[in-house]
Specification:
About 85% of the residues lie in helices and about 0% in strands. The protein is mainly alpha-helical. The relative contact order is 0.11.
């Protein structure tokens, strides 16, 4: 092991242990996934489970290749991805802005608090018929459902992040003559970055739930449409393939947010 002039031998050994643990975790994740896929394939081939109901990795792959060859894979994926990203962006921006307003005005926060609690507990799928009447068919009701599912979560997450700012630091800035806008921009917003990243991670899942749920209600394209169509005509290979694609897209979106988090942490340490 090369010695670094800035670190002691013990610290280098500690860093080496951290790298080993990180590699072990990544290896264990991959091994667990491969073992699950292998067990699934064997269970279907030897009919330990009914392959018509559970499908199998090989049949999922064959269906995926078929969708790619007939040109429908990217069409359905692109439709759902666009609806999800648009709804995610709107929910995050609106949620952040509303949380700022509620932090700024204590009276407004007290007025809105019971409504936020009720809206957070309300199953958004119950609004499905109304959304269809309001927006008709197409992408609009799907995007609206995505926004509704993620919006309240974004508001509550960011409001809690703003309210968690150290009160002593706020008092210190006030004693130095800082006004509310300066406290917001210089202290509250920077200190709430971890809450913002956490909100993004949560809203990734909420966005996919909203878009697929919207496609369940009213859609002629998208991953949710493939799941519903496959279930209606008993093409369960198609259902499992759509679920697999959905998992991959959600994992990719979450990985992007994780990269943003690492970049923010790296910049804050400088």
């Amino acid at each position: 092991m090369k010695k670094h002039p800035e670190y002691s031998r013990e610290h280098l050994l500690y860093l080496r242990g951290l790298r080993r643990n990180s590699l072990f975790v990544h290896f264990a994740r991959i091994a667990f996934l491969l073992a699950f896929l292998l067990l699934w394939e064997l269970a279907a081939r030897f009919e330990w489970v009914n392959p018509f109901i559970t499908s199998s990795p090989s049949r999922v792959w064959a269906t995926l290749v078929s969708l790619y060859e007939n040109g429908t894979l990217f069409y359905h994926v692109g439709t759902t991805l666009w609806e999800t990203l648009l709804g995610f962006f709107i929910a995050v921006v609106l949620g952040y802005g509303i949380a700022l307003l509620l932090w700024w005005s204590e009276k407004l926060r007290k007025i809105a608090e019971p409504y936020l609690v009720v809206l957070n507990a309300l199953p958004k799928i119950a609004l499905g018929p109304l959304i269809i009447v309001w927006c008709g068919t197409g992408s609009k009701p799907i995007v609206l459902m995505t926004v509704l599912i993620g919006l309240i979560v974004a508001v509550l997450s960011m409001l809690n992040g703003f309210m968690a700012t150290d009160e002593n630091k706020i008092l210190l800035l006030r004693s130095m003559g800082a006004n509310k806008r300066q406290i917001l921009t210089k202290l509250v917003v920077p200190s709430s970055l971890p809450a913002f990243i956490s909100m993004l991670k949560v809203n990734v899942g909420m966005a996919w739930i909203g878009s697929v749920m919207g496609e369940y209600m009213v859609s002629k394209a998208g991953i949710g449409y493939l799941i519903v169509y496959g279930g209606q005509v008993f093409k369960l290979d198609l259902v499992m393939t759509a679920v697999f694609v959905l998992c991959m897209l959600a994992a990719g979106m979450y990985a992007i947010v994780a990269l943003v988090e690492k970049a923010v942490i790296r910049n804050s340490d400088r």
